[in-house]
Amino acid sequence: MASWGGAEEQELDGRNQQRSYALAGKVSTLRSLALDIENEAYEHNRLLDGMGNDFSSGEGLLSSSLGRVKGLLTSGRQNRRAMCYIALFVVVFIFLIWYLSSQLFSGQ
């Protein structure tokens, strides 16, 4: 009876050891996945912070340009006339580009 108990104990100990190794492998895999997720989150946060800074600088540039345009419009009659000529030039230029590109692409 003592030998039977010893064999059974060895078998259970062997199974325990196998399951312990399997569990250690799974824990290692989970740990590497957690580190990968952490690195990915860090990179995404860095990218988003960079985009936020870029948008902030773009916002500053646009607001200062808009301030100059407002100042140009409110400063006097001569500046308003120049602003109208510039706006008319931009509209004519865009129309000309559209017309030439439509003629160029319709000829194909």
Automatic annotation (TrEMBL):
The keyword Hydrolase does not apply. CDD domains: SNARE_Bet1. Residues 10-72 form the T-SNARE coiled-coil homology domain. It is a single-pass type IV membrane protein. The keyword Transport applies. Coiled coil: none annotated. Its main location: membrane. Gene3D superfamilies: 1.20.5.110. One of its GO terms (biological process) is protein transport. Keywords: Golgi apparatus, Membrane, Protein transport, Transmembrane, Transmembrane helix, Transport. It is found in: Endomembrane system; Golgi apparatus membrane. PANTHER family: GOLGI SNARE BET1-RELATED. This is t-SNARE coiled-coil homology domain-containing protein. It comes from Petrolisthes cinctipes.
